[in-house]
Amino acid sequence: MKAFLAILKARNIEFLRDRSTLSWNLLFPVLLIVGFAFMFGNDDKALYKVGVVAAVSSEELVFEVGELKYLETVRYSHLASAMQRLQHHQIDIILGDGTYWLNSDSPKSYVVERMILSVTDEPLEALPVSGEAIRYLDWVVPGILGMNMMFSCLFGVGYVIVRYRKNGVLKRFQATPVSALSFLAAQVVSRLVVVTLITSVIFIAMDLMFDFVVLGSRWLMLVVAILGAASMISLSLLMASRTQSEELAGGLLNLVTWPMMMLSGVWFSLEGSPEVVHWLAAVFPLTHMLEAARSIMLEGATLADVAIPLLVLAVTTVVALALAARLFVWRQN
Hints:
2 domains, 65% helix, ABC-type transporter activity, ABC2_TM_bact-type, ABC-2_transporter, ABC2_TM, ABC transporter DrrB family efflux protein
């Protein structure tokens, strides 16, 4: 018992003296609770979505519709983008100037039409379209695979680097002609091959089983996966470039993974959420990877359509890897 108490005391003192880890353990749950409260604090959840095409909509009608309970308006810059979502049952109706589009295959479109007509006397022309709903499974598959890649890229690389540093493995590497950039580049390529291979095998196997909707190029989806994985591996290396303890590394990696899981659209769409949430989400590479993957898979987007997300992922990879190589230390202080 005496030995047990001595070890217990020593371990607690060690933890309390590690101020960075202690601070992180206190701050992380607070930040998480505040973030959830901000995102999900509104109890008046919308059940229906009305697309508003900004260039042609009647603002008076939009205001009247916006006052309806359980109904949310979402603005679109282009009618084609809104129409695609209407055909896939992702929104329930589109308002235009003196007209509206509804999906004749969607029961929710019918309900929203009745709601809108009950609050306006404006003569509106109904233009029906048709289209089958995208299953939630088809929508969420990129999110699940992306989340799996995120954990594998971040914890599978950054955590290992810190352990290498702590165990003195990096110190021995320093005695060789290997540069920091070469060492880190090898880590990126190694993990990239593993993650891409595993993700591809899972996707192909699940596709054979559930017959996913894939309207765009599968090869382009592979390019998105490779760039997305490379950006997250590089980010992990940057975070581990100077980290000395595994506890702190775990805290820093959680600092990145949890917001990405909540804000990058893994489980639900951020459409209609506050503008500040979109700004925060745009910081994370997972957001751009999922945006591009879903555009290709569910909307048939081409390379030109997803050029911006791909560019963001490529720039993130190069910048994070360069900074990691610049800041990298081989041994513990």
